[in-house]
Amino acid sequence: MSTLRTMVFPDRTVPSAPWDFEAENFAWIDFLWSALGRSGDVGKDVELVYNKLQSRKQLQGLISNLAGGIVK
Question: How far from 53 is each of 6, 11, 58, 72, CA to CA, in Å?
Answer without folding.
Answer: 16, 23, 7, 24
